Structures are given as C-alpha cells and as structure tokens.
C-alpha cells in the first residue's frame, strides 16, 4: 500500500513519513510535533490487538517491520521482588550488601522493619507503597543477615508485590483496573500445591497479621495469579537487580518457541521490544517465555507449569524440532536412527526409532531423559572438565544436537576463557580451537531456534570474536594472522549490529574495538 500524500496535520502536500507507524506523512517537523501532541502519540503503533481461540488476546503487526526496529516501549505499572528472592532492598531493589561488620545485621526500615540498604531508601516511592500498609501492624520482618546464607532465597518476599498492587487499588483505581483485566488462569493455579500454600500463608498474613480488609481473599489470589501469568523478570546492573515488573501492554505479546522479537529494560525499568528479524504485516508478534536450548518436552512442561498453556507452535509440533532432533536420543538397538515422539503435542505418546521402528513407552523414555537432565544439573559448573566428561560419557547415546548436549556445550562456551585456570590468555591452542568449534556449532543452532538479532546469538558471537582474536595473536604466519583478524573484525561488526541498542554492552564493544585496532596496528607494523 502506498503511503498517503497529505500532511496529517494541515492536509497540504507532504512526503515525510512517520517513522513509528508509517501510516501518516507530514509537510514539516513542526506539524509532526503538533500532531503528536494532539493525539498521534496514542495512535502511533505498528501493531494492533487481536484475539483468537488458541492465543487469546495477542498483538499483530499492522505493517512490515524491519529487523532491529523498536516495536514498543512501556513503563512498568508495578515492580517488586520475585516470589522468592535473595535479600534485596525494597527501596532501590539492589541485592543487599553484607553489613560492614559480620556481627551486624542489615539496616531495617524504622517504620515496618523490612531490610533496606540505608535510611535513604525508606523514602523510596517503591517502598512507601507496602510500608504504609505494614507500618501499623505488630509484624516484625525476620529476614536477617546470615554470612553463610547470602544466596538463600527468602519466600517472605512473595507478599511485597501483592501489597504494591493492593496499594495501587487504593491510590489509582484506573491503573489497577488495567492490571485486573489481565489473564490469571486462577482456576488451574488454585489446584497446584504452590497456590494451596499461598492461600494458607498469604491470606493469613494479609488479612490477619496486617488486618487489611481492602481486598477479598479471591481478589488477592487473583492478583497473585495475574502476576504469575503476566509479569516479566527484570534484570539490571549486570544482575545486581533481579525483580519482576508488570507491563499491561507488553503482557499482550504471545509466546512462540521461535519468537520474532527480543526485549530489554532501560535504566528507568521501561521494557523495550525490538524486531529480531523482519516481520511481515499481519504476523503475530511473539517473545519466548522459555529457553531456546530446551527440548520440546522441557519447554512444554515448563510453559504448562508457569503459564498454564499447551504450546502448539511450529517447533513444538515438529517431532524433529526443525531438523535438530533436540529432544531425541540415539536408538540403542540400531545405533543409527533417533528415537522421536510419535506425537510431540501429547506427553503420554509413545516414542519410536525413525530408522528401525523400535518403540519405547513415554514413561520409559522420559525417565531416562530426566536422569540425564538431573545428572547435568548436578555437575560442577565452575570448570569445563566435568562438562567435557559429561559429553564424552554420553557420546553414543546422545547425538550432537540433543538438548542436554547443547546445554552442556553452551555452558562450556561460557567457561573456556573465563573459569579459574581457563582464562583466555591461559587457553592452549587446542582449547581455543575447542571454544571456536563450540561457538560455531551453537551459532548454527541459534539460527534455527533464536535467530536474527537475538541476544543468544549476540552473546555467542562475543565469545567467538574474543577467541578468534586470541587465535590471531598466537599465529606466526602473517597471512593466516591477517585472515583471522579480518574474521574478528567481521564478527565485531555483527555484534555491533545486534547489540547496538543495548547500553550495557557499549563499554565491552568499545574495549573490543580497541583490542582489535591494536592487534591490527601491531600486525601491520610486523608485516612491513
Ligand atoms: C502474558 S499472557 C498473554 C495475553 C493473553 N493471551 C490474554 O488474553 O490476556 C500469557 C497467556 O497467553 C496465552 N498464550 C500466550 N502465548 C500462547 C501460545 N503460544 N499458545 C497458547 N496460549 C498462549 C496463555 O494463556 C498464557 O498464559
């Protein structure tokens, strides 16, 4: 469809297309600004709300969207600790630092006794929300500093986000109404052991201990269920802040195991969505609520548990998982074929070798698979040795793109170059080569599961680029060195494209550019 030719503000002939919605044009910057103020701000979107039986409400592209384009930016309606959290400050949300002397405790709020990092954080608007509701009660918060348990997650934090929502109801009914119209899956959730515990503990705490009567029991449980269905995990400052945020607009994005968008958070906790690849007009805009390297069984079980739905996306319904056979094992009988599910959308379906037709019951297959998963989880992840040993021990039973193998390989890409004794300048030629192989293999997989400008791909490229540069610097042959440096430069260019909108990555990128420039200069000097 060709764009309009009349200025949306004054109707005179115009050619400057609005970069946001691309559905209106302007004759001048001034008229664009005026039109924005007079209402285009609300209308300027490249998506619309839609609904169907499978996805419920979801958002669809109203025009073609380019790779890397920003699709939405939204401020949080509510932010707060996760259901279980390491001790964190309720004012600034940073993980609490150990007190100056080990015998001391965390600083405690003078009004409600919850730990904070300092007196200053008592006045944070975030904290005032729950502080007002708790200050009058006799409740004393029992979260104390314990040197040996700094990583321990406290379940007491589950009440904070709920209290912030209750406060929202009291202070801003219109904002609360936006929260309250989100999906909850409360009926399914109430049958789970987690909600039975919540029902017993949370309701007693809010109603009896705090004596709050502004919300009914059902309303409190509904809010908890809305948060579990819709909140995003929000990470900032390199992991020093790990909380949840509720964004009612962003909550409308559907899940897909091969999503077309990625998201990040800015310094003000706004959530920002980008197109990871070109998106065609009419396509459902999607993010992933799960992990790309997990198999169909793992992803679907996780999605059912946390988001209460049965995913039936193209990757889930394909027994070969886009040709990777990520959920399959090598057949123990013919040793050639892969054992795949006869119906990946049914957990109880039998499994069968695609070559010799050997059949295995779901129970038999899944028990064996769970054992391998547990084994991988229990490994020492501080050194590459235990993971390499895992790969060696399972080399016959599991093929190169099996989920457990892929997860172990991904962990290895993060350990070679960083683990104690395996820093980049300590790696042998063989280990450098190994890291390159692992990154390249996973990059191929990322093209299938999380392609385009994904953070997963960006992170792998960062590991690969550093390794290729280290390889270049260890080479004596000038033309081989030059080829490697060129490869490192190309990789850095791709990383810059992908990470262009990630403020936290800019320093690393600048350092990488400097290192590469220095290496190139040194090589050029040597070549003269
Ligand atoms: C964050 S909400 C998304 C908005 C929701 N569809 C609504 O109508 O409010 C997440 C819920 O949307 C539904 N959903 C999202 N993606 C889905 C998918 N790929 N297949 C089925 N249901 C999906 C599930 O019910 C899920 O619990």
Automatic annotation (TrEMBL):
Domain annotation SET: ranges: 45-290
Residue ranges constituting the MYND-type domain according to the UniProt record: 7-44
UniProt keyword Phosphoprotein, yes or no: no
Transmembrane regions: none
Pfam families hit by this protein: SET (PF00856), zf-MYND (PF01753)
Gene Ontology molecular function, alphabetical: N-methyltransferase activity; protein methyltransferase activity; S-adenosylmethionine-dependent methyltransferase activity; zinc ion binding
SUPFAM superfamilies found in the cross-reference section: SET domain
Domain of life: Eukaryota
Keyword Zinc in annotation: yes
InterPro entries: SET_dom (IPR001214), SET_dom_sf (IPR046341), SET_SmydA-8 (IPR053010), Znf_MYND (IPR002893)
The entry's keywords: Metal-binding, Zinc, Zinc-finger
Name of the featured protein: MYND-type domain-containing protein
Species of provenance: Drosophila virilis
């Amino acid at each position: 469809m060709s764009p309009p030719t009349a200025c949306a503000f004054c109707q005179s002939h115009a050619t400057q297309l609005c970069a946001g919605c691309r559905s209106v044009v302007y004759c001048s910057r001034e008229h664009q600004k005026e039109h924005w103020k007079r209402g285009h701000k609300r209308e300027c979107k490249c998506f619309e709300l839609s609904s169907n039986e499978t996805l419920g409400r979801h958002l669809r592209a109203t025009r073609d969207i380019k790779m890397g384009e920003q699709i939405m930016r939204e401020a949080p309606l509510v932010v707060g600790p996760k259901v279980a959290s390491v001790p964190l400050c309720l004012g600034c949300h940073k993980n609490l630092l150990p007190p100056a002397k080990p015998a001391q405790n965390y600083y405690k709020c003078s009004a409600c006794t919850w730990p904070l990092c300092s007196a200053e954080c008592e006045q944070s608007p975030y904290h005032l929300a729950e502080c007002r509701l708790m200050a009058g009660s006799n409740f004393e918060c029992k979260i104390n500093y314990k040197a040996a348990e700094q990583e321990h997650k406290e379940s007491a934090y589950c009440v904070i986000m709920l209290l912030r929502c209750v406060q929202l109801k009291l202070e801003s009914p219109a904002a609360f109404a936006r929260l309250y119209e989100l999906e909850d899956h409360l009926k399914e959730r109430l049958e789970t052991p987690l909600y039975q515990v919540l029902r017993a503990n949370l309701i007693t705490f809010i109603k009896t201990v705090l004596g709050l009567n502004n919300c009914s029991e059902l309303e409190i449980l509904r809010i908890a269920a809305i948060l579990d269905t819709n909140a995003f995990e929000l990470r900032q400052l390199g992991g020093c802040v790990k909380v949840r945020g509720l964004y009612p607009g962003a909550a409308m994005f559907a899940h897909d195991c091969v999503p077309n968008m990625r998201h990040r958070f800015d310094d003000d906790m706004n959530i920002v969505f980008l197109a990871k690849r070109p998106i065609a007009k009419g396509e459902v805009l999607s993010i992933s609520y799960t992990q790309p390297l997990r198999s169909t069984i793992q992803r679907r079980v996780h999605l059912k548990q946390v988001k209460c739905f049965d995913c039936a996306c193209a990757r889930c319904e394909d027994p070969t998982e886009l040709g990777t056979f990520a959920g399959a094992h090598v057949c123990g009988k013919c040793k050639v074929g892969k054992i795949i599910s006869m119906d990946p959308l049914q957990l109880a379906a039998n499994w069968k070798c695609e070559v010799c037709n050997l059949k295995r019951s779901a129970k038999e297959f899944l028990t064996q698979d769970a054992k391998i998963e547990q084994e991988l989880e229990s490994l020492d992840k501080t050194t590459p040795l235990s993971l390499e040993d895992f790969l060696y021990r399972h080399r016959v039973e599991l093929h190169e793109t099996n989920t457990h193998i892929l997860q172990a390989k991904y962990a290895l890409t993060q350990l070679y170059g960083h683990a104690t004794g395996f820093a980049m300048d300590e790696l042998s030629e063989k280990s450098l080569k190994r890291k390159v192989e692992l990154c390249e293999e996973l990059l191929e997989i990322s093209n299938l599961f999380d392609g385009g400008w994904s953070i997963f791909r960006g992170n792998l490229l960062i590991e690969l680029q550093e390794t290729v540069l280290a390889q270049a610097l260890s080479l004596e042959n000038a033309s081989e060195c030059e080829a490697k440096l060129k490869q490192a430069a190309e990789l850095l260019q791709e990383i810059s494209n992908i990470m262009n909108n990630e403020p936290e990555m800019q320093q690393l990128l600048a350092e990488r550019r400097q290192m590469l420039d220095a290496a190139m200069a040194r090589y050029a000097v040597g070549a003269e």
